[in-house]
Design goal:
Keywords: Amino-acid biosynthesis, Hydrolase, Methionine biosynthesis. The protein is of the alpha/beta class. The chain is built from 11 helices and 7 strands.
Length: about 220
């Protein structure tokens, strides 16, 4: 019997939209578009692209930007119930996000404890926003991920654990490659299809819960 380890992305997965993209559309000059396109095409490392996008924004926007993202962000249907389901069954669950602490932590407050959340840090001390990267790639990854999901997974995963990755975007592809089951939507779903990864599509977390329950290894664990 293989114990499951469940890893979940944040932006566009737990939330219904990508909060970094929302911030950039609202506050950034047009130069952010080239950086975004470079990341999506994989021509630009995530760390460089995302760091560059936030570097376009003055730190003086902190309060306005924080209020905006917390007001417009929406948690995907079924997520709170899904976390309760995992907790009730003692299933290990972690959020690994390329998002920023100033919106990830408050949006997950009361749902997921901070010690189960890995994300980047925004520094507002200088003239422009500086992103700090507390979870850089280990010696097995050279992708300059910023928040390196595979590196964190290697620290969390025990020998023989059945890895479930839940995600939606380009930042989740490398983690999906490590997974035994990827529960995917949007960009990541197409990547899973193209790479022939073991995957299931989802729209909300009721779908995610069903996918887990239908997985033999998880059924045996419940």
């Amino acid at each position: 019997m293989r114990k499951p380890l469940i890893i979940c992305d944040f932006d566009g997965t737990i939330t219904t939209n990508d909060n970094i993209i929302s911030i950039m559309k609202k506050f950034a000059p047009k130069e952010w578009l080239a950086l975004k396109d470079g990341v999506l095409s994989k021509e630009l490392p995530i760390k460089e692209g995302v760091g560059g996008m936030f570097g376009l924004l003055p730190s003086s926007l902190k309060d306005e930007m924080t209020a905006y993202v917390l007001e417009q962000a929406k948690i995907r249907d079924g997520f709170k119930e899904f976390v309760s389901f995992l907790d009730d069954h003692g299933l290990p669950f972690y959020v690994i996000s390329g998002g920023m602490d100033f919106f990830v932590y408050p949006l997950l407050e009361g749902i997921v404890e901070k010690n189960r959340i890995y994300c980047n840090q925004a520094d507002f001390q200088g003239d422009s926003i500086l992103i700090k990267w507390p979870h850089l790639c280990d010696d097995k990854c050279e992708n300059e991920c910023g928040c390196c999901k595979p590196s964190i997974i290697r620290k969390l995963q025990g020998e023989g654990d059945f890895l479930v990755m839940i995600g939606d975007s380009v930042t989740d592809v490398e983690a999906a490659k490590c997974s035994d089951l990827c529960i995917a939507r949007d960009y990541l779903l197409k990547e899973c299809e193209d790479l022939h990864l073991h995957h299931v599509a989802f729209e909300d977390f009721h779908d995610v819960k069903r996918a887990l329950e239908e997985t033999l290894e998880v059924k045996e664990w419940l």
